[in-house]
Amino acid sequence: MTPTARPGPVFSPELDGDNYLRFNRYKRQFAKSEKQPRWSKASRKPASMQEKEIVEQVSVQTVVAKDCELPMHSPNPGDQTVFVQAVRSAMDALETRSHELVEQRKVHNSKVLDQFDAHPFVGDDDWIHRRTFKQTLREILAEYLSDPEYWRSQAQQPGDFRPSLVAESLRWKASRSLSLLRTLAGQGDDSALQFLAEIVIPLVKMVNERAGKDPRALGSVPHRVRFWPVLKSQHLDFDEDHQKLLTDLQVGRDYPMLIAEGARWRARDAIGSWAIQLSREVYILLDGHSEGVQAKPWEVILRDLKPFSEVSWRDWWEVALGVLRDKYVDVIEIQELRHTVTAKADLKSPGRLRKRILQALKDKFKSMAGENKL
Fold it and tell me: Mean of the pLDDT values across residues 320-349?
């Protein structure tokens, strides 16, 4: 991985969501067994107590108090008038602010669309709906500017326009429809699956033909993912040279885990699947994690955790181990992990069995970082 490269995501909901959910049955709140995992006494705590602590940490009173600058506790009877006045004042301020934001966004959207009108966009017109190519683009752009997703993602100053915003709005529009189609296909709708295939095949063909002529056109996208779609055929003349394409695009170059040609660590065995799952758990926590009253050792490491690499993999393992102990049932209760240990002496001792499984998981983290070949 180059020093300046931005590492790819360890977890992508579109690519990994379904596989991620299959591990839920091993999480404490989903596990059918009521038997508590045999970790250290300090971490042994009934699920009901854990749930109570979570509720107490995210109480309605706390949220209201933070947003409205109100007292953290319910007012005494003599202070109710002051409390009610404070609530009303906060609500009035919120309503005023909401109105201001609506007006600011209207001005912003109008300015962006005016700047859009000044740019030339040429394409096939929509004769059925009697719209020019540019009118169709404008309609979708206006819809996107009014959607909350735009306001969550936009980082430019209000009123700024950039040509890539048009492609961004089209991606937003298309992904919503395709996501619904994908859901139906995943539920067994054959028609939806066939429609997806009809949409995807020509798009993959166009992307790869353009990429074959100019790999730089795709930017860092292929560098940050672990695989790439290709078109394969029974006929040699229609078969895509996938090895050349993968090499030209440098697929997986900046992916956090070692994906380079020749990497020998296995991802589909039980240990590999669990190591990847735990790394995804850690990656998700990096986006936001609420600590308890007293941070646990792994939570302290999480605060300053660097992207997964040959340098940081040990810290990732420590956080993953903490997540495994806190969220999941004991590893010796997970049959697919138990079956990875074959020595009879280890199978007779719960402690030794647990130690062997955890060591295998740690070694896999090391392998994913390119430090060994397991």
Answer: 93
